[in-house]
């Protein structure tokens, strides 16, 4: 009895302590304290975007140094790596977004958040024009504001290569609404296939899901679709589940070209086991309402009936980025994106405009990992610049004073300024590549003691889950995602169509 009471007491104590700590941090997150107001003596920093680059910058930035304004058509940060999980209902859409105001309300100085799309940047007048593109608009929905420094972090948009029918008939996998649309469309295909009197041929068409693009987005989505089929649809649509087919189409000779050969082989064999068809060296030439037109490896053209096409064929620049680049016709000639120097300054823009993430053309891959490291780095650069600006202003104020003690102070400031002049360049530290491939398996290419560790399987899947859980920006998101995973394990995915 004594031992039993001791054990129960310890468990109760640990549970109460953990619960209290959790409650304390959750409340701390929920009730931000008062903030300093905008200070007219500080410079204005405008940040365009609220994605990986911008949010990482905001998290690390000392807002005491600037009056910060964030302009983005989405008033939230989207945790893109878990987007395919939303598309099949494993995760709730709300679980992987973090309202930008949750981030900015915890900063020392007030940050203005404006839900709008930047439409034009004038690098000479140093202004940004933006428009409210949401459904409801007030009397004013378009305006221009000045900036001292601009951080351009607008990401990229889906590349369609102007292939006919893609915009009209395919679903994308880039934004939250894309995942929600795909989920609705997928469920619609299932319910239409269940409609009485449907011919076997039409059922096969409706239940054929085609994923275009064998990059990590297409592979992860195919894996998630397979899980949905195996773990839930077999129970709730037993008469249809055998007819569901997933085909992944890739123009290159293999999927996941950024992963090591061993992991590509592992993914291909896992997909084979999971009965996901991979068509490599095959290019989608057109998307029609009820089919896709494929150019096969032997150059023959085949039309394949299908119910759903998901387009995950890569990224291209946004119009606002192309327009900004066009203002520097000699310096900005890279078609992949904005050319920046080693400190993320846009080349040609006099050091007032910085660009980070997918809208830039650097030697790094367009990934969240790169964008977030660039954001955190830029926060340090901006802090250094703020110090420099402050000292320069002080030096200017002392310019005319002849007293010897002032001269001494001037000399000190000049010395400090010389030190601040040199900005340490950005250095990317690759933490490895991870991707979920379905069937509770993931693959990982990890830097390991100067070498590379390529691993795949169930243990890697657990590593994938814990890595993403810790990478999520807030306690709120971590709790919501973990709860969703538990809910799906217990009750399965929801198959009702919104
Ligand atoms: P984004 O994160 O796309 O942010 C751009 C921001 O700009 C958004 O807030 C957008 O609303 C805003 N914006 C758009 N237009 C305007 C405008 N006109 N004016 C102002 N703001 C604007 N990378 C990884 O490293 N690991 C992964 O596991 C991974 N998984 C992914 C899964 C999916 C499904 C996708 C689509 C991508 C994934 N990526 C992953 C890639 C990663 O999401 C991008 O590289 C990353 O989002 C780039 O960050 P960014 O800040 O440049 O752009
Ligand atoms: P991607 O550019 O990596 O892959 C797109 C694929 O589509 C390419 O392999 C291309 O050959 C193929 N393609 C293009 N047009 C085609 C056509 N007409 N027919 C057939 N195939 C066609 O794009 P993705 O997967 O969206 O990734 C974008 C970026 O985000 C990459 O840098 C990627 O590394 C990163 N990312 C990383 C993830 C991870 O690390 N787990 C997950 C998702 C994205």
TrEMBL record:
The keyword NAD applies. Residues 430-494 form the External alternative NADH-ubiquinone oxidoreductase-like C-terminal domain. Residues 381-423 form a coiled coil. Pfam families: NDH2_C, Pyr_redox_2. InterPro entries: FAD/NAD-bd_sf, FAD/NAD-binding_dom, NDH-2, NDH2-like_C. Residues 44-375 form the FAD/NAD(P)-binding domain. Its EC number is 1.6.5.9. Keywords: Coiled coil, FAD, Flavoprotein, NAD, Oxidoreductase, Transit peptide. One of its GO terms (molecular function) is NADH dehydrogenase (quinone) (non-electrogenic) activity. GO terms for cellular component: mitochondrion. It catalyses: a ubiquinone + NADH + H(+) = a ubiquinol + NAD(+); a quinone + NADH + H(+) = a quinol + NAD(+). Belongs to the NADH dehydrogenase family. This is NADH:ubiquinone reductase (non-electrogenic). It comes from Polyporus arcularius HHB13444.
